Amino acid sequence: MPEEITQDSFGKTKDGREVKRYTLKNSSGSLVVRILDYGGTISEIHVPDRNGELADITLGYDDMAGYESGAACMGAIIGRVAGRIAGGKFTLDGKTYTLCLNHGEHALHGGKVGFDKRLWSGKVEGDKLVLKYVSADGEEGYPGELTTTVSYRVTDDNQLILEYEATTTKPTPVVLTNHAYFNLAGHNSGHVDDHLMAIYGDSFLPMDDLFIPTGEIRKVEGTEWDLRTPERLGERLPQIPGGKGISETYCLPPNDGDPQLAARVGHPPSGRTMECLTTECGMQVYTCCMLDEPYGKDGAVYTQSGALCLEAQHYPDSVHHKQTVKMPGEITQDIFGKTKDGKEVKRFTLKNSSGSLEVKVIEYGAIITEIHVPDRYGKMVDINLAFDDMAGYEAGNPEFGAVCGRVANVIAGGKFTLDGQTYTCYLNRPTSSIHGGKLGFAERLWSGKVEGDKLVLKYVSADGEEGYPGELTTTVSYRVTDDNQLIIEYEAITTKPTPVNLTNHSYFNLAGHDAGTMEDHIVTIDADRFMPIDKYGVPTGEIGKVEGTEWDLRKPVRLGDRLLKVPGGEGFCHNFCLTPCEGEQLRFAARVEHPSSGRSIECWTTEPGLQFYNSYYLNQPKGKGGAAYTRFGAFCLEAQHYPNSLHEPSFPNTILRPGETYRQTTVYKFGVA
Fold first, then answer.
1. Range of the domain at 534
2. Domain boundary among 298, 320, 342
3. What is the pLDDT of residues 517-546, one digit of tens each?
4. Overall pTM surpassing 0.70 (yes/no)
5. Could you tell me if 445 and 525 lie in one domain?
6. CA-to-CA distance for 359 and 379, rounded, in angstroms?
7. 97, 143 in Cβ contact below 8 A?
8. Beta carbons of 149 and 125 less than 8 angstroms apart
9. What CA–CA distance (Å, rounded) separates 118 from 37?
10. What is the pLDDT of residues 288-339, one digit of tens each?
11. Which residues participate in catalysis according to the annotation?
12. Whether residue 400 sits in one domain with residue 442
């Protein structure tokens, strides 16, 4: 474990306020980091070379006089908006805001007195240092009171982990980063020409002579900005057009919320290396073409190309290029109603920062009750079929929006044998048990809590419930993102070997939940095989090729042109076997488009199968808002393991055993064209 975080006094500000310095050290002493509560500034980072000799690799100052007079933001947290805002103005929700100009006619790094010049409040929480700053409504011209926390933590494998959080009282742009200046030879070595650098972005943002992005996104291939393979900086920097080295933002590949490798820097003479992993979409790379600080630490003189900065952040000047970042609002909750036996059911509302995706979820069945997305003109519509109240859900719900389990889809005969013992489940179909039995997970009351930007719902299914062995503890989390993704993550553990197959059974209509038909929708499913079924909807055990059949949806097909051609005349209620991928990676499963509105939905999943259902049996005369939901009124994209796997040994395994954890991720990506 890292050593206890210590603190001392670094000095005082001009107006007499004390500045604390915190020292974080891992257990071996191979990583020592010092941080000030002024600006959230990293003032020192000590790491060893290949011989074990420690050196301080981050530029800084010896005292508060240096930090208060310096304009380089060395090691500091930058905000409220890192980077430049052209013209020092932006318009948000129809109102124009004027900022304090500190870079000619532009605002840079939050304004005249940004977060780097503010005194934060610090406290130690376990192995973390947590710094907090409350930016007042109107500070530097920005709307809303913004409360920001930044935590710092070191690990025994020499990682420095920074985590940022912010909440606001009004819509406001937020782009945060750390502006540490690195030199792996030592902060006072004078240059980084002998460093090797790789940046893992295949595009970048060109800038004008005043370092304002032009709005263009350009491929790095064939340009001097292509650093996808390591390059010696001393050879590459003079080749950059303009002769100023690199000061551009690189566009990183999309990620699913986990940190991704953005950059790697090495110093061959010392053997030191550094990697930057981030959840951000951009990486501002600065090789210090304008660095001129004659009074650095220990009397060092910091000059041009004396360091490099790796600033993980959203794109600069995003407020003028449709990349405005407003922090998502907190997940809110209210009461949806009560069950027949008087238990209260909470409803949670998740909304992204722009309001372009709003999802409502209730604890009963972990049900998604509403999904609001815009059309090409910005008109929001609820595309998710559901009921208005608990009476609707308890009176015969066709699993609208629910999590289905313990075993989604069918078990032929309602029986299965596991480890030599036969188990009998409730038959709720003529020849099978479907979606967990008489009272599956869709009819159970889950417990919900908010964890950061996620809603986490939990249900403990008792040993023997619906005939299944073992106590199964299941959690499902819901999260929305600013690029209009709804991310659903499942986990489950058991006390005995038991079958587990979970899915979400939302019914979608991209024209609106009450549109009545989805025959004008266009569907694509990335599967070259499917599972034929008998007249009761139970798979025959065969896996057929889609080629040359009505089940071939690998190219876009209008549903109205295909549904009645499917043998049996009931459209699709089949499992499609998705194109395999390695490990637990997300794979593209399906895309559905509604040309009239421009709305689209994609399904990505870690699961091997996708049940595509066109609601042939749908007959709900009183849905949400009094809507009548009828045949072919919606479609379902149910990511899952193959149905009836318990009776087909060649199908992917659905048995979970004690000590194992079931995991699944499914993502619905909503778009507009």
1. 332-672
2. 320
3. 999 999 999 999 999 999 888 999 999 999
4. no
5. yes
6. 16
7. yes
8. no
9. 9
10. 988 888 889 999 999 999 999 999 999 988 888 644 333 445 689 999 999 9
11. 505, 638
12. yes
Strands (E) in 316-409, as ranges, are: 332-338, 344-351, 358-362, 368-374, 380-382, 403-404
**Residue 425: exposed, middle, or buried by beta-carbon count in 10 A (0-12, 13-18, 19+)?**
buried
Q: Is residue 430 domain-shared with residue 500, that is, in the same domain?
A: yes
605 to 250, 477, 583: CA distances (angstroms): 28, 15, 12
Work out how many domains the chain is built from and give that number: 2
H/E stretch holding 652: none
> Residue 204: left (phi > 0), alpha (psi -120 to 50), or beta?
beta
Number of H helices, E strands in the chain: 4, 51
Burial of 656 (0-12, 13-18, 19+ CB in 10 A): buried
- Amino acid identity of residue 163, one-letter, is E
Distance of CA 606 to the CA centre of its chain: 16
160-168, strands of its sheet edge to edge: 121-125, 128-135, 146-154, 160-168
* DSSP string across 553-576: -SS-EEHHHHGGGSTTSS--EEEE
Domain of 274, CATH number, reads 2.70.98.10
Same domain membership, residue 297 and residue 186? yes
Beta-strand relationship, 332-338 and 344-351? antiparallel
Does the residue 586 lie in any domain? yes
Domain membership flag for residue 327: no
Separation between Cα atoms, residue 262 and residue 277, nearest integer Å? 5
**Quick check: 141 and 112 in contact, CB under 8 A?**
no
Distance CA 625, CA 638 (A): 25
Query: Whole-angstrom Cα distance, residue 41 to residue 34?
Result: 8
